[in-house]
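Researcher: Before we compare anything, I want clean individual predictions. No alignment, no superposition, just each chain on its own. First chain goes here; please echo the sequence and then give the C-alpha cells.
Model: Echoing the first chain and its structure:
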Amino acid sequence: MGLTQTGFAVITLLGMAACSTGGFSASGQDVFAPGIDPRGEAVDGLEVGHRLMQAEQYELALEAFIRAAGTRGLTSEVLTAIGTANLGLGRLNQAEEQLRRAADMEPDWPEVWNNLGVVLMEKGEIAEAGLIFRKAYALDNGQSDSIRDNLRLALAKLENSAYGVDNEQEYKLVRRGSSDYLIRNTGI
C-alpha cells in the first residue's frame, strides 16, 4: 500500500512540527503546574486554620487544624483550634469534648476556658458557662475584653432567664495570638 499525497503531506508536517521548538515537547515557557521545591518550607497548619477561621471558612479551617495535628500531635493548642472550628460548624458536642480535653491538658490557659464557656452558652447551659467564664476571667487577670464581655453576658442571662430569647447575642472566641473570633447567635 502506498501513501497518498495527502497522507505523505500530513506525515511530513507532523515530523516538522516535532522538530520545531514548539513541537510535541514542552517549550521553554512553563505552561504546566510548577514543581515542588523539596527545600521549601510548608506553611504551619495552625496558622492557615486561624486565617480560615477569620474568614469564617470553618470546614477548611478544621481540615487545616487536623493536618496540624498530624505534624504537631494533639496538643492543647491543636485541640482548642479543632474544638473552635467545630463550634463554628455548629457541632457543639464535639467542640465541648475537644475543649474539655484541651482544658485538662493546660488548665491555666484562659482562652480554652473562654471558648468552652461559649460552647456551653450555645448549648443553653448558662450556669456552667458562667462558672467557666469566671475561671477564664480569673486566669486572665481581667486583661481580655472578650472574656469580660462573655462573662457579663452569662451573668446577665443568669439574672434574667428571659434575656436573649428574642435578642441577637454575640459570643467572642479567643485564640492564643493577636486575633479574636466572634460567633454570633441569632437566637435560633
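Researcher: Okay. Second chain, same rules.
Model: Second chain and its structure:
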Amino acid sequence: MIALGCDHAGYKAKQEIIRYFNEHNIQYKDFGTFNEDSCDYPLFAKAVANSVTKKESDKGIILCGSGIGVSIAANKINGIRAALCYDPKLSEMARKHNDANVLCLAGRYSSFTTILDIVKIFLNTKFEGGRHQKRIEQITEIENCQKYQ
C-alpha cells in the first residue's frame, strides 16, 4: 500500500501517478488534495507520513510545487525518512543508502515522465543495509533525542 498526497501544485503529477498505479494494480490510498484549488501542503505531508509511521502504508509519495515544502514537513514526523528526488538515480540512492520511506517530488519542476521513472525506481529498490544500517540508526538516535548537546 502506498500513501499518496499533494497540494494544488502537485495535483496533475499525482493524477499521472494514480493512472500508473491503476494500470499496474498497485494499491494506494489518496490523502488529497483532490483538485487544483490552492491549499496547504503540510496537511497532506502529515497525513501521508502518519500513514507510513502507523504502518497503514508501506511507503509514501507526496508532491508540491518544488518538493521542498513537503519534504521538510514530512521529516518532522518521527520515523520518516523523506527524500526529495528530482532524478531517478537520486531515488535509487535514497532507497539503497538511506532507506527512505517517503518520496517527495516537484510537481512544477519535473516532467511526468521523469516523475514516473523516479516513482518506479523508488518502489522497486531495496535498502542495502550493511554499512548504511548504522547511519539509519544514528538518524533514529538523533530523532529520539529530547535535548541536543
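Researcher: What stands out in the second chain?
Model: Residues 10 and 64 are 5 Å apart (CA to CA). Additionally, The chain has a mean pLDDT of 96.
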